[in-house]
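Structure tokens please, single chain.
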Amino acid sequence: MPLRNPHRSGKIDLTLGILLLISTFITPLTLSAQLNLGSTTSSSSESASLTSQPVSDLPEAPSALLYQQSGQTPTPPQKPADNPDAVSANGTQQTKRVLGIIPNFSSVSADTKLPPQKPKEKLILAAKNSFDYSSFLVAGIQAGFAMNSNSYPEFHQGAAGYGRYFWHTLADTADENFMVGGIGPILFHQDNRFYTLGHGGFKKRTWYAVTRVLVTRQDDGSKMFNFSEVVGSGAAAGVSTLYYPKKYQTWTKVGQKWLTSDLIDCFNFFWKEYWPDVNKKIFHTH
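Here you go.
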């Protein structure tokens, strides 16, 4: 058997050691580099996918994402209704007539905001309040009370006297309605409708109602001194002196009628404020 060459054996051992070193250290590095490259490629693909996603599919804000996850949709803020026949939040509504007879055309339900009126619309509303069939009925009742108390002795009694009381009362009503609800709102650019408050306690609502004689809305919705009511009722009282006996054509009589008209309107605003509540609780209607 031939002897082993020690030089050749050392070269072989050196070569095997180098190969073993390469397999031990270089191979894991190569695999790690491949893994890193693969993850980088995957991240780039995901970024490209997100970038290519339409903007409309992305949530506009974190709150939108929250609503999507919870299955809820945000509720937009409530706006005042623009329908005059709308039912307010507390379930009440103004009706066109009180007890089906007395006209209530100018009352607006609570939480309702209507567009400005045109001058023609203001005059039409004043005419409806003046010449509605119920106006003749109310004037007839008032004329009977006035004749019974002999308010104007010059009118005398009987059928002829009642007729004088009747047409004078009807004329006073028309004067008041057209001056306060028609001509006044046109000249002063004010709203001739009564906007029900409908919220708060009795004192708050009552104070609101009776002060509408002094405070009203402009056509643009802002608050303003009620020139239409105060000036209009005074003008109506002055016009009425033209068809009453001369002894009643004095500043004292005009002032008394002026003040009486404003006090009556205070009461009118009061019952208009609470009529929807009464109608709902007593008559169980909206």
